[in-house]
Amino acid sequence: MVFVSLCLSSRLPVVLFPPSDTSHLGDKIDGKISTNYKWRMVVAYDGTKFKGWQYQPAPTPTIQWHIEDALIRITKLDRGDLCLVGAGRTDTGVHAFGQVAHFTTPFNYNNLDGFHAAINGLLPKEIRIREISPAHPEFHARFSTTSKMYRYKIYNEPVMDPFHRLYAFHSAYRLNPEAMREAASFFLGKHDFSSFGNVPSRNDGTPNPVKEIFRFDISESGAILDLEVEGSGFLYRQVRNMVALLIQVGREALPPDIVPKILEARDRKVLAKFSLSAPPHGLCLMSVKYDPEKLNHPSGAPPVSFGRTHTISKCKLPFY
């Protein structure tokens, strides 16, 4: 069965109706029902100079604004038609390697490679679309997620390496990774994370504070500590707040069993007595996972584009 998808708002899920049920649609061109095609993108960006993901009107530089601007210039559609939605709304200064977004068009593409190259050609060098694929009508970048994985990078030496300064938090205090791992283990499972979520500045209503953490790994590579956390979802600044507390434990200023005590309090003010949020530049959204069925491509859709590979079949310059 073929479905028609209508995106009424970037903050609402897509509403689906069979084409035979035209009483709900009313979106017609020359008397014909307009069918929207949905597309999924994997996006990477250096968030240093941007005001986060979420759209804000120019001249405020946000990731979503730049991607929408490129799409508008290529497709000649307005942002209301494109309905660009991201899986996560990263903060100012936060990076991403595996952000996922979707958008819609009223027309299909036979091949996505040229479209892919055109978008990247219009984006700032700090933003790149890594992958474009056709998406199932029921796929939603935000509401179809099953988990997200973030990485927080810490540079743990007395003198900061300037080549890491934009992507890692500098801790001149010698950190104890074993103590941090013990503390991180208390986050695993399903908990009320009210103590670790800031009140969002955006109007998102009241989010459910109960989240499930599937893993929280801490690995060492020379001076670098990588903290990777995967969960069903996260409250506003939850990851940075958890990391900040683990840094205090790593400094041995707090014992590892402080974590369950703060969790049980369910009060952000309790955490504030022990730590502030970790800086944003050490954080990166690494990947977003979905139910495999939601990633199935519609029949007759073009193949996924991972970008063009340029080759030279014959050297045209003579050798001397």
Description:
This protein is an alpha+beta fold and 320 residues long. It is 19% helix and 27% strand. Strands 5, 6, 7, 8, 9, 10, 11, 12, 13 and 14 form a 10-stranded mixed β-sheet that branches. The radius of gyration is 22 Å and the shape is globular. The model is unreliable at 1-34 (pLDDT under 50). Residues 42-143, 183-291 form the Pseudouridine synthase I TruA alpha/beta domain. Its EC number is 5.4.99.12. It is an enzyme of class 5 (isomerase). It comes from Rhynchospora tenuis.
Give a short synopsis of this structure.
The chain is an alpha+beta fold. The chain has 7 helices and 14 strands.
What brief labels describe this structure?
globular; alpha+beta; 27% strand; 320 residues; 19% helix; two-stranded antiparallel ribbon; TruA/RsuA/RluB/E/F_N; 14 strands
The pLDDT mean sits at: 88
Q: Structural class, judged by helices and strands?
A: alpha+beta
Largest sheet: 10 strands, mixed
What coarse outline follows from CA principal-axis ratios? Answer: globular
What percent of residues adopt helix (DSSP H or I)? 10-25%
Uncertain segments of ≥5 residues (pLDDT<50)? 1-34
Spatial gap, N to C terminus: 63 Å
Gyration radius (Cα, Å) is: 22 Å
Alpha plus pi helix count: 7
Per DSSP, what share of the residues sits in E-state strands of 2 or more residues?
A: 25-35%
* Number of beta strands: 14
